[in-house]
């Protein structure tokens, strides 16, 4: 199952890449939302096997996910893969950046979920039934992230 969206951000591509690859900010944001995390790897060299072990509660059940930085290409994008223990679903999120002008960047995000067992197939099938709602929520969250990134970059400029 794939979900895609794109947003235009009023900022140079280098600054947008800096915002999406600010892993310390993402970690603090996850901690504020109640996610326990443990990072492995070096933030100063993220292309060399950066990963996180995440523990959180979702729909009343404890979940564990191993999130790994699969690709890291400065100024053009990155990809993350995730697999949960016992969830039966593997995921991949790709973020691609495209400079539309010196001060405008298009961010395209694609999330792909694939089942690894019967439990995962049932979960993915139920998600497909709610695809339109999931897609609209995904697009809304991406738009919020884009707006937050624009405002943050304007404040620091």
In short:
With 157 residues, this protein is of the alpha+beta class. The protein is built from four helices and seven strands; from the N terminus they run E-H-H-E-E-E-E-E-E-H-H. The protein is 36% helix and 43% strand.
Query: Rg, please?
Result: 16 Å
Placed side by side, the strands forming the largest sheet appear as: 1-7-6-5-4-3-2
Number of strands: 7
Major sheet description: 7 strands, antiparallel
Approximate helicity band? 25-40%
The residue ranges in which pLDDT falls below 50 over 5 or more consecutive positions are none
Describe the structure.
This protein has 157 residues and is of the alpha+beta class. The protein is 36% helix and 43% strand. The chain has four helices and seven strands; from the N terminus they run βααββββββαα. Strands 1-7-6-5-4-3-2 form a seven-stranded antiparallel beta sheet. β5 and β6 (89-101) form a beta hairpin. The N and C termini lie far apart (39 Å).
Layout: helices, strands, pairs:
Elements: E1 2-9, H1 13-20, H2 23-32, E2 36-40, E3 51-58, E4 61-73, E5 77-84, E6 89-101, E7 104-115, H3 118-129, H4 131-156
Antiparallel strand pairs: 1-7, 2-3, 3-4, 4-5, 5-6, 6-7
Descriptive key words:
157 residues; 4 helices; globular; 7-stranded antiparallel β-sheet; single chain; alpha+beta
């Amino acid at each position: 199952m794939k979900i895609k969206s794109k947003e235009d951000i009023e900022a140079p591509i280098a600054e947008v890449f800096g915002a999406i690859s600010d892993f310390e900010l993402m970690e603090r944001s996850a901690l504020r939302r109640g996610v326990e995390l443990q990072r492995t790897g070096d933030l100063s060299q993220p292309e060399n096997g950066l990963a996180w072990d995440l523990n959180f509660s979702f729909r009343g059940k404890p979940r564990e996910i191993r999130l790994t930085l699969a690709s890291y290409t400065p100024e053009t994008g990155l990809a993350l893969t995730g697999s949960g223990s016992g969830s039966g679903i593997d995921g991949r999120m790709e973020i691609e950046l495209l400079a539309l002008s010196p001060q405008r960047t298009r961010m395209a995000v694609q999330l792909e979920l694939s089942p690894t067992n019967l439990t995962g197939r049932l979960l993915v099938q139920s998600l497909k039934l709610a695809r339109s709602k999931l897609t609209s929520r995904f697009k809304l969250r991406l738009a919020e992230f884009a707006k937050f990134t624009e405002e943050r970059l304007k404040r620091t400029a």
